[in-house]
Amino acid sequence: MDAQPLSRGESEAQKRRATRGRRWASAKKVLVVNDHVEVRSVITEFLRRRGFIAIPVRDADSARVICERVALDLVLLHLVVLDVAEAAFIRLVKRLHPTTPILVVSVVVDPEMERECRALGSDDVLRKPLVLKQLDRVITRLLRTGSTPGS
Which pTM does this prediction carry? Predict the structure, then answer.
Protein backbone atom coordinates (compact mmCIF):
# COMPACT_ATOMS: atom_id res chain seq x y z
CA MET A 1 0.00 0.00 0.00
CA ASP A 2 1.46 3.35 -1.01
CA ALA A 3 1.78 6.02 1.63
CA GLN A 4 -0.18 9.09 0.70
CA PRO A 5 1.79 12.30 0.67
CA LEU A 6 0.96 14.75 3.39
CA SER A 7 -1.23 17.59 2.28
CA ARG A 8 0.19 21.02 2.71
CA GLY A 9 0.42 21.92 6.38
CA GLU A 10 -0.61 18.46 7.60
CA SER A 11 1.83 16.76 9.95
CA GLU A 12 2.20 13.06 10.70
CA ALA A 13 0.80 13.75 14.19
CA GLN A 14 -2.33 15.32 12.65
CA LYS A 15 -2.80 12.28 10.42
CA ARG A 16 -2.46 9.93 13.41
CA ARG A 17 -5.02 11.95 15.36
CA ALA A 18 -7.43 11.85 12.41
CA THR A 19 -7.00 8.06 12.11
CA ARG A 20 -7.62 7.64 15.85
CA GLY A 21 -10.68 9.85 15.56
CA ARG A 22 -12.13 7.67 12.77
CA ARG A 23 -11.38 4.52 14.79
CA TRP A 24 -12.97 6.03 17.90
CA ALA A 25 -16.11 6.81 15.92
CA SER A 26 -16.43 3.35 14.37
CA ALA A 27 -15.09 0.81 16.91
CA LYS A 28 -17.25 -0.64 19.68
CA LYS A 29 -16.57 0.97 23.05
CA VAL A 30 -16.45 -1.28 26.12
CA LEU A 31 -16.25 0.18 29.61
CA VAL A 32 -14.27 -2.20 31.85
CA VAL A 33 -14.99 -1.58 35.56
CA ASN A 34 -12.70 -3.65 37.76
CA ASP A 35 -10.86 -2.76 40.96
CA HIS A 36 -8.06 -5.31 40.36
CA VAL A 37 -5.45 -3.61 38.18
CA GLU A 38 -4.04 -6.88 36.81
CA VAL A 39 -7.43 -8.28 35.83
CA ARG A 40 -8.48 -4.94 34.38
CA SER A 41 -5.28 -4.85 32.30
CA VAL A 42 -5.73 -8.40 30.98
CA ILE A 43 -9.35 -7.78 29.99
CA THR A 44 -8.49 -4.41 28.44
CA GLU A 45 -5.69 -5.92 26.35
CA PHE A 46 -7.92 -8.88 25.38
CA LEU A 47 -10.61 -6.48 24.12
CA ARG A 48 -8.16 -4.20 22.30
CA ARG A 49 -6.67 -7.16 20.43
CA ARG A 50 -10.16 -7.93 19.19
CA GLY A 51 -10.62 -4.42 17.83
CA PHE A 52 -12.64 -2.88 20.66
CA ILE A 53 -11.91 0.41 22.32
CA ALA A 54 -11.58 -0.68 25.94
CA ILE A 55 -12.01 2.05 28.53
CA PRO A 56 -10.63 0.74 31.85
CA VAL A 57 -11.71 2.28 35.16
CA ARG A 58 -11.25 1.26 38.78
CA ASP A 59 -14.69 1.74 40.31
CA ALA A 60 -18.31 2.72 39.78
CA ASP A 61 -17.64 6.38 40.60
CA SER A 62 -15.00 6.64 37.85
CA ALA A 63 -17.25 4.67 35.51
CA ARG A 64 -20.11 7.09 36.12
CA VAL A 65 -18.06 9.98 34.68
CA ILE A 66 -17.26 8.01 31.51
CA CYS A 67 -20.84 6.81 31.18
CA GLU A 68 -22.11 10.39 31.25
CA ARG A 69 -19.68 11.47 28.49
CA VAL A 70 -19.26 8.53 26.11
CA ALA A 71 -21.73 6.52 24.04
CA LEU A 72 -20.95 2.98 25.18
CA ASP A 73 -21.61 -0.29 23.38
CA LEU A 74 -21.05 -2.57 26.41
CA VAL A 75 -20.30 -2.30 30.12
CA LEU A 76 -18.31 -5.05 31.80
CA LEU A 77 -18.77 -4.59 35.56
CA HIS A 78 -16.88 -6.57 38.19
CA LEU A 79 -18.74 -6.97 41.48
CA VAL A 80 -17.51 -8.30 44.78
CA VAL A 81 -20.89 -7.61 46.35
CA LEU A 82 -23.81 -5.75 44.90
CA ASP A 83 -23.75 -2.60 47.00
CA VAL A 84 -25.44 0.78 46.73
CA ALA A 85 -22.79 2.33 44.43
CA GLU A 86 -22.86 -0.53 41.92
CA ALA A 87 -26.66 -0.73 41.96
CA ALA A 88 -26.85 3.03 41.32
CA PHE A 89 -24.33 2.70 38.50
CA ILE A 90 -26.31 -0.06 36.76
CA ARG A 91 -29.45 2.07 36.99
CA LEU A 92 -27.53 5.09 35.61
CA VAL A 93 -26.24 3.11 32.62
CA LYS A 94 -29.76 1.94 31.84
CA ARG A 95 -31.14 5.46 32.16
CA LEU A 96 -28.47 7.05 29.93
CA HIS A 97 -27.94 4.14 27.53
CA PRO A 98 -31.05 1.92 27.65
CA THR A 99 -29.87 -0.44 24.91
CA THR A 100 -26.28 -0.82 26.14
CA PRO A 101 -25.74 -4.33 27.50
CA ILE A 102 -24.25 -4.74 30.98
CA LEU A 103 -22.24 -7.84 31.75
CA VAL A 104 -21.62 -8.43 35.46
CA VAL A 105 -18.65 -10.55 36.50
CA SER A 106 -18.30 -11.83 40.07
CA VAL A 107 -16.70 -14.55 42.15
CA VAL A 108 -19.92 -14.91 44.10
CA VAL A 109 -22.83 -15.66 41.80
CA ASP A 110 -25.80 -17.08 43.57
CA PRO A 111 -29.39 -17.07 42.29
CA GLU A 112 -30.38 -14.14 44.49
CA MET A 113 -27.48 -11.95 43.38
CA GLU A 114 -28.11 -12.83 39.72
CA ARG A 115 -31.81 -12.00 40.13
CA GLU A 116 -30.95 -8.63 41.72
CA CYS A 117 -28.46 -7.76 38.97
CA ARG A 118 -30.96 -8.62 36.26
CA ALA A 119 -33.72 -6.68 38.02
CA LEU A 120 -31.44 -3.61 38.03
CA GLY A 121 -30.77 -4.02 34.30
CA SER A 122 -27.75 -6.27 33.79
CA ASP A 123 -28.02 -8.53 30.77
CA ASP A 124 -25.82 -11.39 31.90
CA VAL A 125 -23.79 -12.50 34.91
CA LEU A 126 -20.57 -14.51 34.65
CA ARG A 127 -18.77 -16.31 37.44
CA LYS A 128 -15.05 -15.75 37.95
CA PRO A 129 -12.49 -16.94 37.22
CA LEU A 130 -13.09 -15.82 33.66
CA VAL A 131 -12.29 -18.00 30.71
CA LEU A 132 -11.44 -15.57 27.90
CA LYS A 133 -13.07 -17.78 25.27
CA GLN A 134 -16.33 -17.74 27.24
CA LEU A 135 -16.03 -13.98 27.79
CA ASP A 136 -15.56 -13.52 24.03
CA ARG A 137 -18.70 -15.59 23.26
CA VAL A 138 -20.84 -13.68 25.77
CA ILE A 139 -19.61 -10.27 24.58
CA THR A 140 -20.26 -11.25 20.94
CA ARG A 141 -23.78 -12.41 21.82
CA LEU A 142 -24.58 -9.28 23.86
CA LEU A 143 -23.31 -6.94 21.15
CA ARG A 144 -25.29 -8.84 18.51
CA THR A 145 -28.54 -8.90 20.48
CA GLY A 146 -28.14 -5.69 22.50
CA SER A 147 -30.08 -4.98 25.62
CA THR A 148 -33.80 -4.69 25.95
CA PRO A 149 -34.76 -1.46 27.71
CA GLY A 150 -36.37 -2.24 31.02
CA SER A 151 -34.86 -5.75 31.18
Answer: 0.80
